[in-house]
Prior knowledge:
Elements: E1 44-45, H1 56-87, H2 90-101, H3 110-114, H4 121-131, H5 147-163, H6 175-193, H7 200-213, H8 215-222, H9 226-255, H10 260-270, H11 278-287, H12 292-303, H13 307-310, E2 312-314, H14 315-321, H15 328-337, E3 339-340, E4 364-368, E5 371-373, H16 380-392, H17 396-421, E6 426-434, E7 440-449, E8 452-459, H18 465-468, H19 472-499, E9 503-506, E10 514-517, E11 523-530, H20 536-539, H21 542-546, E12 560-562, H22 563-572, H23 576-592, E13 595-596, H24 599-609, H25 616-619, E14 623-624, H26 630-640, H27 654-666, H28 671-678, H29 683-701, E15 710-715, E16 723-730, H30 738-746, E17 756-763, E18 773-778
Parallel strand pairs: 3-4, 8-11, 11-12, 13-14, 16-17
Antiparallel strand pairs: 1-14, 2-5, 4-5, 6-7, 7-8, 9-10, 15-16, 17-18
Helix pairs in contact: 1-5, 2-4, 7-9, 7-16, 7-17, 9-10, 9-16, 14-15, 17-22, 27-28
Amino acid sequence: MPTSRNRKKKKKNIGKQSDHIPHFSENAIARPGIAPDPITMNYYEVETNGFSILSFEERLEAIRNMGTKAATDFPKKYNALQDWFQRFDQLYILGFTFYYFMTAPAGYDEEAVTGGLEFPPHYQELLQAFALTVPRNYDPHPFAHEVEKFKKDFAEIGELIKLRHFNVPDQVKTPEALATHQIRIEMMMHTIAVRNWSYEHKMSEVTLALAAGIRESFLQIHGFDPEVFLKVLYIMTEKIQERLNGHRQLTIHMLRGKTYNQVMDIYESLFPVIKMPADKRTFLWNKLNRNLQELKFMFVTHSDLFLPQLLSFDFKNIATLADNKLTFEQVKVIMDKISIDFGELADHNYEHFLLNNPIHERPFIRTNENEVFSSLWTTMTDLSIGLLEKFCLEDEKLRKKYNEVRAKYLEEEIVKLFRQSFPMAEIFPGSMWPGEDGRLYENDLLVTIDSFAIIIEAKSGQVTASAKRGAPDRLNKTLRDLIEEPSEQALRFIDYLKRNSSVLSLPVKKGPNNNIDASKLKYFIPLGVTLSHLHTMSSNLKLMIHAGVTDKTIEELAPSINLTDLQIIFDLLPLAAEKIHYLQRRREIEANINYMGDELDLLAWYFDKGFNFGPEEKKYGLFEVSSKSKELNNYIIGSANNEQVKKPGLKMSQWWRDMLTGMETRRPQSWLENSYILLNIPIEGQEIFQQQVADLKKKILKGKAEFVHNWILMGSAEEERQFAVAGYCYQDKYFDDRNAIMGDILDDKRIANTKGSLVIGINIEKNHYPYSVLACKLSTTLFDNKFLRMTNNTEADTPSE
């Protein structure tokens, strides 16, 4: 839905049409269990053209003028919007816009197809808030004839909402001050436009787990089970989908009528209307000039009057959906707390709706004493965690308990995730270690796989409402708490491990000490993991630096990844080597490349070439990849719905994949380093290399090889981070020379300055697949030399079978 976080913008399978005056087609209904084809998105370099030749002062003035004009025009346009609520029933408008603007057939992604969203979710939220500023107007006359004018009016309001934030304060006079202001705007726009911080099944999973953790305390304070409450919300969302799909099917059935009498008979049999006598039917038919399409359009328009009813629930029905685990009286108390009456927002500053919309905490409209309505069903799962927190904030002890549960849940889920994702690893949670300053520190999780170490720090803190609204102090503190602080903790622990390169026995709060052999660790990857989603703030750390939020360099900061994003990353990268390569390269490109995109955009980008860009890494200015993650939606959403979907992944040749899989299965000496080297060759290079090796095999077997010992040598494209892979083809009769020749290849001057070199030995007379033997040589900087690296030189390894 919102442009900046596509995968979290899932739309319900309720069947939107291409026209807002409905034109139904039964073919538009998705077949259950079969996912649509995945979307392919391109990334590109952003060009600034003429704007870039302006001086800073001229650019600032142009930006300011746009913002000033929008701030002036916005109140005028808002007042014009009120006229719609004077002429139409607000529930009818809200029901109409939800049904026709907010829903789509399964698999259809408007933003991917059209490049944008005509009516994003925050428009619906604003519309519901605006509707509650005046008493309800019960006038039920049709809205469809004026819908395009309404859309145009609201689109203008939406544009003004964005542009008014370009109204840069007068105190911003330097590029540095503008950068600071822009990061505030980024967070504010994230608050305005981004909905669904993860995929729906992930959001509900996290929210229900947190509710389970506070269940007993919550029951004592509020008297009802928070899990039951949340599950009812999710069931209500499913019921809305069923109702609207059913409504659509009924309308489609009516549209199949071949004669005017048949159309009328079908409509009267399917909808709760009074049957029309024959003479009135004839009168109506004649009035419509005997035009069957006009008759069908009239009935479709009339059927829209039932939409508010379809989006409403009475309290008895809600209690039934709760399997009577919530009483009618409990439902009434709950809904009273999360509902708003018509006219209740009359004195509310409508400009605050942009960043502090009251409907986020109270997403329902009270229509009578025992019934509520909402038009926010596409984002109800996203709002549910805020509703849970709303109840927790009503009691200080419950609030503290909730924060404790958040922290414990995050730490436990991280440990669980890494155990599942790295079955060969040693897992060390909660190590206590002494700092040089005499203080005792605690590391949340250390994961070691041979000579590689991943150092994880968990941060369960929340992004406060004031931070989302861009309040400078709160925003800066939030970003420092969730990104800078875990970076410092992780890097501090890495430094400790490097300074104490021996077998360490580190205490934990409960249980036996963690016994860690730090002497074998050479490569360190720091990582922060959060429960809160920070959008591009965490996936592009240079934003923080440029905005002056931190005085750290890019090398002193660690990537911060949301837990649900990390779960998806590890699911889509099946091999431990792929996960490690992604995390490290993900950190390195933050220093070397300018880009716009969130974490899963980066993952989808990684799948193209493994972040092996060649000269592109330095050539381009800014890569725009902010919709790239749409390529993942088909699998993530489809697999959650038990549909038949193809799993995306890093593009590589089958031979390359088999070598990596074989090494991870057998884990010979230096298998992870070897795998890391292989992953720095993109698929184009793999295919060329494979073909050249095949050609060399044929020459040797035919006796046409130029030398006694022959090999193919390929280097990666990046000049500053080169890796080399050699394919050495040999025959049985030269077996005794094999190891010496492989050593000579590793000493070849042409690859002397590579970060890592790997020789793939292939006995062409044996049926060895995918290789016969491997040998590698590693420099002191297997990772990019801007970052933490191994402490000791590594000579050429002995070949590993």
